[in-house]
Design brief:
Largest sheet: 7 strands, parallel
Strand order of the largest sheet: 3-2-1-4-5-6-9
Bound molecules: nicotinamide-adenine-dinucleotide
Strand content: 5-15%
Number of strands: 9
CATH superfamily of the largest domain: NAD(P)-binding Rossmann-like Domain
CATH class of the largest domain: Alpha Beta
Radius of gyration: 20 Å
Order of helices and strands: HHHHHHHEHEHEHEHHEHHEEHEHE
CATH architecture of the largest domain: 3-Layer(aba) Sandwich
CATH topology of the largest domain: Rossmann fold
Number of helices: 16
Shape: globular
Number of domains: 2
Helix content: 40-55%
Length: about 350
Amino acid sequence: MGINAIEKALWQASNKPADAKRLREDAHAYLKEFRIDEEERWLLAAWDVRGLIDRGVHPMIIMMAFAAVNGPFAAAGYQDRVHETESFFPGRFAGKVAVVTGAAQGIGLEVARRLGQEGASVVIADVAQGPTSQAIEFLQRMGIAAVGATGDLSTAAGAEAAMACAHDAFGGLDILVNNVGGAIWMKPFWYFSEDEIRAEVDRTLWPTLWCCRAVIEHFRARGGGVIVNIGSNAASDGVYRIPYSACKGAVVSLTRSLAVELASLNIRVNCVSPGGTNALARKTPRGKSEADEQETQWMNQFVKLVGKEELLSKYATAREQASVIAFLASSEASHITGEVLETGRRGLRISEELGFVP
Ligand SMILES: NC(=O)c1ccc[n+]([C@@H]2O[C@H](COP(=O)([O-])OP(=O)(O)OC[C@H]3O[C@@H](n4cnc5c(N)ncnc54)[C@H](O)[C@@H]3O)[C@@H](O)[C@H]2O)c1
């Protein structure tokens, strides 16, 4: 398979996960033809695209490496990082201190990287110790001032400790991105046990609620601040994820109401509600066990449904989500509070299938 054919196939794979296995094998075979030294291996492991490009590694090789390691689904999602590594605003967050929760991987890590590259000092607050250390190393190698606050944010004490860590490391804080969350199980509501529902709430509601409360005293001491909560379009139509949907609905209510309460303290509160987002393979999985056959079937049904409903007919990239989150966290959004910004809207879609093409 030639390089152009692989590139085309990788792009198409973002909407056809069924081809994933074959493409991954092709990517492995392709990578073998290239010699990559130790430093480049490290940069690949840290997904440091800028570093790789600076060393003259061809973008296609980087993309193939993503495909080989994480599967073409993720590689296709990383196409824009590979091709547009310069498209951010230097200095936008100079002098600011940001706490990003759940930032050891996924959307959170991309947000931490974006805020850090644009000048912020960053605290990664996450429960996963190993991935947090790796993320800190990744950010520090890019020249970003970053520290980790490892702890469980589903408790009030964990949230308070994370904010205190930011204060101790950088003397105060200005931005809080509440990113911890994510559906653990996907199945009809009546199949959820009591323990599972509690686990979903622990993961998707408590960390945001506790962190919002814990940050207020720090923002007051600073004379203001910004909170960006991460919701989900599942808040309004979360098929097979009812406990998660309920939590994300609560995140929306929290955002709107807290914005009212805190406006006079010069604290803005907004929410970004993503739809399906491509990210690299998770270092920390959401569930404790592998999905069984029935759960996999429900998951596939859900993915198919979302694929049909997304207006832009594709998953977003983590970078696209980070762009919107960074905008709301920045002074460019200084007159916006209490808003919920949906990225990945679903709904009525004109398609060729319906014989309805403008
Ligand atoms: N990925 C998507 O397709 C998608 C779509 C819509 C909304 N979202 C939302 O975006 C956010 C990020 O999603 P993701 O897929 O990048 O997340 P992820 O599951 O890949 O990572 C979540 C991180 O949170 C950490 N974490 C979990 N529980 C924690 C706790 N109690 N205390 C501290 N840290 C904890 C994990 O260790 C992990 O590093 C979530 O709020 C999710 O609901 C994601």
